[in-house]
Amino acid sequence: MSRQERTLLLAAPRGFCAGVDRAIQIVEKALEKYGAPVYVRHEIVHNRYVVENLEKKGAIFVDELNDVPKDVPVIFSAHGVAKSVPLEAENKNMFYIDATCPLVSKVHREAERHEKDGQEIILIGHRGHPEVIGTMGQLENGAITLVETVEDALAYVKKNPDNKLAYLTQTTLSVDETRDIVDILSTRFPYIESPKKEDICYATTNRQAAVKELASQCDGMLVIGAPNSSNSMRLVEVGKKAGCDNVFLVQRAKDIPWDELDTSLTIGITAGASAPEELVEEVIDAFANKFTINIQEIITGKENVTFKLPRILEAD
């Protein structure tokens, strides 16, 4: 009896971005240089597979600096932290390494510049996300107003009618939804200052564009990523809005919803910016065990971005 066939369309680009790759390298290089254990405040990136692999190498993940013993290195996650965190570390004479993605650091510097220029600041983002907490924590409480939705943008009231206004965005948002919010703010406040270069990072933009292309060619789609990964969750939303009804987030091959994909003959596969290629290969292998598969890569862009490691971890 011949096996059923399935076509797998692989998004390109997919998976690790330069900021995630840099953050993981920082933990690995710190382990090489200083030996285990190395402590990490919060998940270095939002992916359990990555975190568990680093734990096997000697990384210990904690919630707060109070959980870090004296005289061991501590690393701050790629999402960025409020200014109070390195200040606390310095007050405790801790040795810390900041793995904040440079594109997130760019947003932090923008916030500081806007405050210096006397502007009211709006941050478009998702409440409670570590990146948003870190960005809002660059300034005093109340200095930045969070706008999450179109409704928030319509309801926003300036604190002072005479103040200038500027907006920033979380780097991992839906490009289309953010554009809708920005359009409303720009219509209501024509003078609002936008980022000199878009805050939504290149990897988020590229992966969403790839998913839109996949959605036009497949009748099922898997996004490999974590439920607490903003960029991965946005890929699910983008896929559905682009016309593919059967879009599912999976962390590992064991999570594949085979019943829901039973009638899908062409399945798109992508991975969020914090999901490694090994997990893509694991999902492909799972399909190969059940079906005769035809694999096609759908290339919508090329990426060649890299970020330097902190000097302290560069080779001696």
Could you explain the architecture of this structure?
With 316 residues, the chain is an alpha/beta fold. It has 3 domains: 5-16 and 202-299, 4-hydroxy-3-methylbut-2-enyl diphosphate reductase, catalytic domain (Cobalt-precorrin-4 Transmethylase, domain 1); 18-101, Rossmann fold, CATH 3.40.50; 103-188, 4-hydroxy-3-methylbut-2-enyl diphosphate reductase, catalytic domain (Cobalt-precorrin-4 Transmethylase, domain 1), CATH 3.40.1010.20. It has helices at residues 18-34, 48-57, 84-91, 102-116, 130-136, 150-155, 175-188, 202-215, 230-241, 277-290; strands at residues 5-12, 38-41, 59-62, 74-76, 96-98, 119-124, 144-147, 164-169, 220-224, 247-250, 266-271, 292-299. A 5-stranded parallel β-sheet has the order 10-9-11-1-12, with helices on both faces. Helix 4 (102-116) packs parallel to helix 5 (130-136) and helix 8 runs parallel beside helix 9 (230-241). The N and C termini lie far apart (61 Å).
Give the SSE string.
Answer: EHEHEEHEHEHEHEHHEHEEHE
Question: What would you call the shape?
Answer: flat
* Amino- and carboxy-terminal Cα gap: 61 Å
> How would a textbook summarize the main sheet?
5 strands, parallel
The CATH class designation of the largest domain is: Alpha Beta
Number of helices: 10
CATH superfamily assignment of the largest domain?
4-hydroxy-3-methylbut-2-enyl diphosphate reductase, catalytic domain
